């Protein structure tokens, strides 16, 4: 009887086998929070290991070292936003609707993913050093310009968008308007109040960002085209 009990306890004591891919995803999720909150130098691998119920050794096995993990988190963050843009299927929409949808998606994605914005801010502190080392990030981001160029060229071919625009500059403008909303939300709301950061305020800003970009690209005689869906 005693022997049977010991065998039963031995079986119960065996740790559950964890899915390696699931472990990697957990590590990346927690590492995103840790790096975005504390930066590269302030993030602690011990903390990531404790929160994911794994070990430093396992983290280093998957990602090489702390900087390797940080770079992989950056790649995951950019992969998420670019994947979301791809899912918009902009080619199926007319140029005005496509650009409106892209602007709103960018604004709403950044608002819903403040860790992504903080990660980009951290990487800018490091002068983009880890992005320079990542071919993955370069490959992920180039299609964003190519997709925007297709929308822009279709709008120009239809006589809706003015000439002299570049997709890179347009991408910069959309990113800037959406990025500031998150990166400076704390200081802006402390100085001017939090009205713009309520749910209604954010919905209004999302709509107005799309309006501003469309008014910039549209030929003056087509300004009224943006009023139908945005009024």
UniProtKB/TrEMBL annotation:
HTH tetR-type domain mapped to chain residues: 21-81
Pfam families per record: TetR_C_29, TetR_N
Top-level division of the source organism's lineage: Bacteria
Keyword check for DNA-binding: yes
DNA-binding region: 44-63
Alphabetical UniProt keywords: DNA-binding
Name this protein carries in UniProt: AcrR family transcriptional regulator
Origin species: Rhizobium aquaticum
């Amino acid at each position: 009887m005693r022997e049977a009990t010991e065998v039963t306890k031995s079986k119960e004591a065996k740790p559950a086998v964890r899915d390696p891919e699931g472990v990697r995803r957990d590590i990346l999720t927690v590492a995103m929070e840790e790096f975005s909150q504390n930066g590269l130098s302030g993030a602690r691998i011990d903390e990531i290991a404790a929160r994911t119920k794994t070990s430093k050794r396992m983290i280093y096995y998957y990602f090489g070292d702390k900087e390797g993990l940080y770079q992989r988190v950056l790649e995951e963050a950019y992969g998420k936003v670019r994947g979301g843009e791809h899912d918009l299927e902009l080619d199926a929409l007319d140029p005005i609707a496509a650009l409106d949808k892209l602007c709103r998606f960018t604004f709403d994605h950044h608002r819903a993913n403040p860790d992504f914005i903080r990660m980009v801010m951290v990487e800018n502190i490091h002068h983009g050093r880890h992005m320079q080392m990542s071919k993955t990030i370069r490959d992920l981001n180039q299609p964003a310009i190519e997709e925007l160029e297709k929308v822009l060229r279709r709008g120009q071919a239809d006589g809706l968008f003015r000439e002299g625009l570049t997709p890179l500059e347009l991408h910069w403008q959309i990113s800037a308007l959406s990025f500031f909303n998150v990166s400076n939300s704390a200081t802006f709301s402390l100085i001017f109040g939090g009205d713009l950061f309520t749910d209604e305020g954010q919905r209004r800003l999302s709509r107005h960002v799309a309006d501003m970009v469309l008014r910039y690209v549209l030929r003056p005689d087509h300004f009224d085209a943006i009023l139908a869906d945005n009024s």
